[in-house]
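WARN retry 2 of 3 for item q-0093 after timeout on previous attempt; input resubmitted unchanged.
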Amino acid sequence: MAKYSTYIILMLMAMVMTGCQTKKAVLQPSSSLMTSTDDEEPHILFLKGTIAYDSVVAAYSITIDSLQRFSGQMNTQGAAYNGVPHGLYYQQSDAWGEILSQHEIDNPLAQRIEYFDGSQLVTKTIKKDKAELFVRLQLNPKARHITFMCDSLKITTITL
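OK item q-0093 returned
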């Protein structure tokens, strides 16, 4: 009898331990984060994560910790580019890879500050290796991928 109760206790402990794990999502291009729908209702997408720059390999990396989608329309669309944007930006593309929109975003690794040195205004850029990244975007209903880019180099792609 004691043998069966030990076995049951071990099974319960295993179920509790596997059910309570916290997983941190590191997005890969093949990751599927949310169910895509073909409805025309506008949605706003909120992404939260970290961005880092590795100076040894001269490459950026982005890790998304949270992705939330809400019904609604943003008041502003942001600065859309028809040409090739510079700096940090994202592209929304459809299932066939056609770019639907691209928008530049502020790079949190390059923080610009202004201050007075005596009577002269001085502007400096402080560069960081790692920072939090918050992106809010108007989701195109046909979008199936969001690709983060920096100066035309792909950082990561999120599959919706």
